[in-house]
Structures are given as C-alpha cells and as structure tokens.
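Lab notebook, bench 4. The sequencing result for the construct came back, and we need a structural model before the next group meeting so we can plan mutations. Quick request posted to the team channel:

Model the 3D structure of this chain.
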Amino acid sequence: MRVYCTEELHRSGGGGVFYLSKAEDALKQLIEQYEGQVRLIYLDPPFRTGESFKMKIGKGKQAQTVVLYEDKLDEESYLRWLKEILLGCHRLLDARGSIYLHLDYRMSHKARMLLDEIFGEANFMNEIIWAYRSGGRATRCYPRKHDTILFYRKSKKVLFNIKAVGTPRGPERRNHMKRFIDEDGRIGFSIRSNGKTYTYYEDSLIYPSDVWSDIEHLQQKDRERTGFLTQKPEALLRRIISASSEPGDLVVDLFSGSGTTAAVATKLDRRFIAVDQSPVACALLRRRQLGVTSEPTLTDTTPRALTIRYPVDHTPCSIGAEVIQKGEKRIVQLKKTTFSGKVCAPVYAATGYVDGTCFCVMQANSAPKLPIQLPLASDRTPVLHIVGVHGEQAFFTLD
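Done. Here's the predicted structure in token form:
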C-alpha cells in the first residue's frame, strides 16, 4: 500500500535540514523558526544568464536529461525577486552574522545597491574577486574569468576570524631576505628597509586578500564533480565558512545546487539549512551527505541527523518487489520501478518506517542498481522509499 510523507529523517549524515522548495517560499517558514539565529548565509543564485541549465543523469541508453533550473527572468523581475530574498536573509542573521552573495559581471553591481539599501553601506565588508582559469578564451574582449562575491555584515558585532583561513608562510625566501634561526629554534627571514628591520617567521600566517586566485575552478574530472553545471569547489566554501562562523553555528544556503555548502559545513562541524527547488539538488545533497550507502551503526558516538523536507508527491508509481525471509531477518528485493507508467531505474532507495508523515530511514542506497536488496524493520511496519530520475518519489508499506 502506498503512503505519503513530507519528511525523511536520517540518524546520521547531517547536522542539518534540506528543503525542496523555492527560496522565497522557504524563507517564510525559516523566518518563523530561525529569525535572528543564523550566523552565516552564502547565496549562489542564478546569475541572470538567460539560459536553461540541464544535467544528464545515468549512462548509455538509460541516460536522461533533466532541467535543473530556468535562469530567464527579466532584469526588473530579477531584482525584485533578489530583494525579497535579501530582506529575508537580513531577518535570519544574528547580530554577529554575515552574508556572502556570489554573482558575476551581469548583476553584481546592481545587487550591491540592494545590499547597501538593506544591510547599510556601513556594513559593507568586501567585494571579493574569485579569479579562476577555465573554459575557452574570448577574442572580442578580455576573457571574463572571475566571479564577484559581495560580503556584508549584519552589524559591527560581526564574527570574522581571518586567522582561521591563514596559511603558513613556509620556507620560501622572499625579496632577498636573510634566513636565520632564533634562540627558540624558529626559522625566520629578515630584511632591512628605510632604517627598519622587518622579520617574518616560517610558521607565521599569510592571510588571503580580497582577490582569491589560489582557489581553482572545478575541472571536468575533479573528484568533487557531481555533474551540476554551476558547482562551486569545497575550497571556496571552506574559506568562507571558516572565517565567518564557528563550530556549532548555523549556516544557510538558499540555492543549494550541488550541496557544497552543506558538505563543507558538516566537515567543519557547523549546522546547516539548505534550500533548492530542484529535486536533482535534493538527490545530490542526500548522496553527498550519506555517501553511496548509509546505515546507522552503534559506533556513531555523536550522530548528527539529516532531515529532508518536501511536498507530497502524487505521481503514479508501482514497484516489482519481493519480501524474503533470511533467518530472523527480512529483506526486500526491489526488481522494478515504474513512474507514470514508464519503467525507470530509481536514483535512490531506502527502507525504514513511517511516524506520522515522517519517513525514518533504516538503510539507504543513493546509487541503486536493480535488483537491489535492503533490510526491513522488524518491530514496525516496514516501508520502502524510492525516488525517480526526475525527482518523483513514492513510499510503500511492505506487510
């Protein structure tokens, strides 16, 4: 029998929540629950390119092209929409909070005017230039090889720790400096200029400026690659999150995309809220957070729950499955899935049980290849959850 859920809960893989929703719709709920509690917001919205962004999922004859999002708003509509987002972000941030808005040459200058209006010109921190090498080279103008990240604070109480993103100076000798070893055994370099002696130690930190040319754009064969066209590298988010938040702080990304913000926040022991309207973004975040397979174990000393929330899905769906008894355990063997009358392999499958409208996950597989076997809950009515390539999903009880 089919049941309907609006939430799934994983015992591990988080410290965060993902909302399958448009940013402007999710903000209404987020403000009710988190107003004044967020330490950091990173926004990587559509750049107003006028394009439709797609992604190929699967391989060979079963590969399908899925639309990720449409980026075709006219300028007036785009700015009105962005202003609504930024107003909501201002309400979410606490007094020590900050926002990083990631855009390019198309709208960054006009977005800065909105940020000045909403956050105040006095709360401008930096216009960060992320310079990278990728793609072809223009000949009719200088190649456009940078993005702009606008960094604003909520107030003068802002948390900003540049030491968290410093890198050791290292053993390289600079500007004809003289190398020495002090009485404590520290290696340093010194130079005398205009009657003054300047001294630097090998283990002292060098801090990034507002031009970030040391972080590379993701290449096609990069290990981080998920297939999401506008994916940002983890190194970029690591710098932002490290400098503008602390362990345990709440980090928000309203355009989750490939799930990089959530991935880095988890690795840095921050909590996160991620939002995206694309079911593909939901699948990518789930897969990155859980790995290919996920099963909570007794060795999880500090389990961090991952919650995913979405609207009810009434897409017609059927399955070919068999429940098998193996000793004292029962498993389900999933052989076939059909959405809207079309046979298609799922991109995600999980077993667990339902509590109200919440699906509590027992074991999940984010890259299933049919037929697949998954264990069933023994003390509750077991439930199977499957998700199709276009984001269609269904829950079935397996009595």
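The helical segments are 23-34, 75-92, 108-119, 234-244, 260-267, 279-290.
Will bring this to the meeting.
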